[in-house]
Amino acid sequence: MADKAKGFFVTGDPLIYGADVAIVITLLGILVFLTFFKKWGWLWREWLTTVDHKKIGIMYLVSSLLMLFRGGVDALLMRMQLAFPNSHFLDSQHYNEIFTTHGTIMILFMAMPFMFALFNIVVPLQLGARDVAYPFLNALSFWLFFFGAMLFNLSFVVGGSPDAGWLSYPPLSELAGSPGPGQNFYIWGIQISGIGSLATGINFLVTILKMRAPGMKLMKMPLFSWSVLASCITIIFAFPVLTVTLALLFVDRFFGAHIFTATGGGNPMMYVNLIWMWGHPEVYIVVLPAFGIYSEVVSTFSKKKIFGYKSMVFSMMIISVLSYFTWVHHFFTMGAGADVNTFFAITTMAIGIPTGVKVFNWLFTMFRGRISMTQPMLWTLAFIPCFVVGGATGVMLAVAPADYQYHNSYFLIAHFHQVLIGGVVFGYLAGLYYWWPKMFGFKLNDRLGKWAFWTWNIGFYVCFMPQYALGFMGMTRRVYTYGWDMGWAPYNLVSTGGAFLMGIGFVFQVWQILYSIKNGERDLTGDPWNGRTLEWSIPSPAPLYNFAHIPKVRSDDAWWDMKEHKHGAASEKENKEFEPIHMPKNSGIPFFMAACWFVAGFGLTFEWVWVGIAGLAGVAICLLARSFQRKTDYYIPVDEIKRTEASLGRVV
Ligand code: HEM
Ligand SMILES: [Cu+2]
C-alpha cells in the first residue's frame, strides 16, 4: 500500500511537498470560506452554471492569471537554476519537467484562456449583440479548458509531470522514452482543453458572422472583432490537427502501435510535421487578437480613426492564411533539403510584410493625434519596438542556412519570448487595462500600474537581451547546467535578475488589482476613455442583457459617430418601447460533462481502463440529458429591464 502510494504521489522533493501543503491548505480554505459565508448556492447559481458570456470571460481571466503565476514561478525556478554555473538547485529531471510545464502552461493555459477571456467579454458587446451564438457551448468550452488545465496541473503532485518539452517530440514522448503517466497527463490535459478551444473558435466565428447589430457590415466591424475572426478561422483549421496528433501519440503509447517510432516502421518526423502544422498557426492564433487590441487602443487614445482600416483587415487575413505555410521553419536542420527549406524561408519572411503594414498603420494613426498616455496606451507603445526587434530576429532565424547556427540555441529562446511577451502578453495586458472598467465598473490604479509597467519592461530587456548573446556564444536551450569555463555566467546572472524584475512587475499588478477593488475610481459613464466602439455605449459593468435596445449602426466607429451626430443610443432619451428580452437559461450540464471528461482523462492517464470508460459514459449521459432538456430559454420581462436600466442611471 505504502509502495503504491509512493508510485502515485510524487515524493522526494521539498518543492513538491510544499506544493502538496499549499494545495491542501488552499482547498480547505476555499471550502471553509464557502461554507462559513454560505456561498455554495451563490457559487453554483452565479458562476458554475452561468451561460453569460461576460461571466464566462471573467472565469477565463481569473484562471489565466493563476496560470500566469504558475508558469511564472516555473520560469523563475529555471532562471534561478541557470543563474550560476554548476548549480544544484534543481536536478536535470526536475529541470526537464519544469521547462515542459512552463511552455505548455504559458501557451495553452495562460495565453489561450486570456485571449478567450477578452473574446468573451468584448466581442458580443462590440457587435451590439446580446450573447454569443451558442451560449451553452460557450460554457462547455470554458469548463473543458478548466478541467483540462486542472488535469495537466495535477501531474505536479500526482504521478509526475511530463518532461519531453512543450511539443513532446517522439521518440522521447513514446512509452520507451517516457514510461510514467506524465506524458499521458500531457496528452489528455491538452486534448480536453483543445476540444474546448475548437468549440470556442466555431462559436465566435458564427457569432461574428451572424450576430452583428443591424447595419454593421463586415467592413464596418471594429478591428478587434476582425482580429478575433482571423484568429477563429485559424483555430478551426489548426486545432483538429492537434487533436489527431495527440490521439495518434496516445495510440502509440496505449496500444503499442509504432506510428511515430522508427524501430517499428513508423516515422517520428511525421509527428514533428503534424505538431508544427498546429504549433505554428497557434502562435498567430494568440498574436492576432493582440493586434486587434493595439488597433482599438491606438485609435481611442490618439482620438483618431485608425489609419488604413482596410489594409489592417487584409493584413490580418493574409497572416492567418500564410501562417499555414511556414511550419517547416521549426526544423530546417532536420534534412528536408535546400528547395523545401527555401520555400519555407520565403513564406516565413513574407509574413513580415503584412506585419510591417500594421506597424506603420499604428504609427500613422498616432501621427498628429492627441495622444493620452493611459495604461493601455503605455503597453501599446512598449509593444511596438519590442515586437519590431522580435520580428527582425525572427527574420534572422528564417534564413535557413543561418538557422543551422541558431537552431535550438538561446538566441531562439530570446526571440520567441520577445514576440510572445512583447507581442502577446503586452497586448493582452493592454486589453485588460482597456476593458477592465467595462468588466468591473471601476478603473485600475494608475500609479501602481506605472510601477508594474516599468518593472515588467525594464525586466524584459534585462532578462532577454543577454540571451541573444548567449545564443551566439553557443548556449543551447534546455541545458540545465553549465561550467565556469563556458564564459556564460555573467550573462545568465543578469538575465535571472531581469526575470525577477518581471516577477516584481506581476506582484505590482496583483497589488494594483487588490488596491483598486477597494479604492478604484468608479466608472459611472460607461464610457471612461471616450471610446469609439459599441461596448462603450452601455453602462459598466454591462447588464445581463447587454443592450436594452439593439443599436443601429450607420458607420465604422459606430459609437463615436452616434456621439458626434447625437443619433441612435447617444440620444436614446426618447422613450422607445422596451420589449421582453430572450435569454438562455443557466445549466449545470457543461460543468458536469467537463468533470466527466476529467475523470475519463484521469483514468486513461493511469491506464485504469474502467475509470476511463466510466468517465466517457458520464459524458454520454450528459449529452443525452442535454438533448432531453426542453426549457432552455426564458424572457426578461419589461419591468425588470426598466428597473435595471433605471438603477444604472439610464433614463427610461
Ligand atoms: C516571466 C517571463 C518568462 C521567463 C523568465 C521565461 C523563461 C523561460 C526559460 C528559462 C525557459 C527554458 C529555456 C530552456 O532551458 O530551454 C523557457 C522556455 C519556454 N517559454 Fe518561457 N519565460 C517567460 C515567459 C513566457 C511566456 C509568456 C511564454 C508564452 C506565452 C513562454 C513560453 C515558453 C515556451 C514555449 C518555452 C519552451 C519550452 C520548451 O523548451 O519545451 N514563456 N522560458
Ligand atoms: Cu513557426
TrEMBL record:
Q: Tell me which UniProt keywords the record has, alphabetically.
A: Cell membrane, Copper, Electron transport, Heme, Hydrogen ion transport, Ion transport, Iron, Membrane, Metal-binding, Oxidoreductase, Respiratory chain, Transmembrane, Transmembrane helix, Transport
Lipid bilayer topology? Multi-pass membrane protein
GO molecular function annotation: copper ion binding; cytochrome-c oxidase activity; heme binding; oxidoreductase activity, acting on diphenols and related substances as donors, oxygen as acceptor
CDD domains assigned to the protein according to its UniProt record, in alphabetical order:
Ubiquinol_Oxidase_I (cd01662)
List the catalysed reactions.
2 a quinol + O2 = 2 a quinone + 2 H2O
Cofactor, free-text remark: Binds a copper B center.
- Tell me where the transmembrane regions lie: 15-37, 58-78, 98-123, 135-158, 185-211, 223-251, 271-294, 306-327, 342-364, 376-400, 412-436, 448-469, 489-514, 586-602, 608-625
Its Gene Ontology cellular component terms are: plasma membrane; respiratory chain complex
**Reported cofactor(s):** Cu cation; ferriheme a
Give the location in the cell.
Cell membrane
**Pathways per UniProt:** Energy metabolism; oxidative phosphorylation
Q: Identify the EC number(s).
A: 1.10.3.-
User: GO biological process: what's one of them?
Assistant: electron transport coupled proton transport
Extract the Pfam families matched here: COX1
Main localisation, per the record? membrane
Q: Where is the Cytochrome oxidase subunit I profile domain?
A: 36-554
| Keyword check for Nucleus | no
Q: Which family does it belong to?
A: Belongs to the heme-copper respiratory oxidase family.
Its job: Catalyzes quinol oxidation with the concomitant reduction of oxygen to water.
Q: What is this protein called?
A: Quinol oxidase subunit 1
